[in-house]
């Protein structure tokens, strides 16, 4: 029987997470394009543009994890996660929002890596790995809020 603390314990839960992570990938893509399209004399310069191209690589990896979740949602069901589905979805929504709004790409690379790690952990179906990945995303969001 599913409890309130089994946030990824059904195929529907995994599909909802995959949809949410797809939204994060969209936010990464949007943010990277803003930096890539910035005028050559923009104040952030070449480092920002290089960081944007690195984000596009992370976006591709995240989308690959998302596709794996969609294709194999039943296998990726995580029993005994200890977190409600709403927490998992709210955390990834918050990550997407931070990615869209942070002006300097270097300030979001850790968050992006943590979200990619979460997607991979969810695909693994191992509760401890997912819990650690959720903590990593949460910690990066807290660090960004502290800035």
How would you describe the overall organization of this protein?
With 147 residues, the protein is mainly α. It contains 5 helices and no strands. It is elongated. The model has no long low-confidence stretch (mean pLDDT 87).
Shape: elongated
The biggest sheet, with number of strands, parallel, antiparallel or mixed sense and barrel status, is: none
Number of strands: 0
Q: Structural class, from secondary structure content?
A: mainly alpha
In terms of DSSP E residues, the strand content is under 5%
Mean pLDDT: 87
pLDDT < 50 stretches:
none
Distance between the termini: 42 Å
Specify the number of helices.
5
Name the features.
elongated, 0% strand, mainly alpha, 5 helices, 147 residues
What's the topology here?
Blueprint: H1 11-37, H2 45-71, H3 85-101, H4 109-124, H5 127-146
Helix pairs in contact: 1-2, 1-3, 1-4, 2-4, 3-5, 4-5
Characterize this entry briefly:
The chain is mostly helical and 147 residues long. The protein has helices at residues 11-37, 45-71, 85-101, 109-124, 127-146. The protein contains 5 helices and no strands.
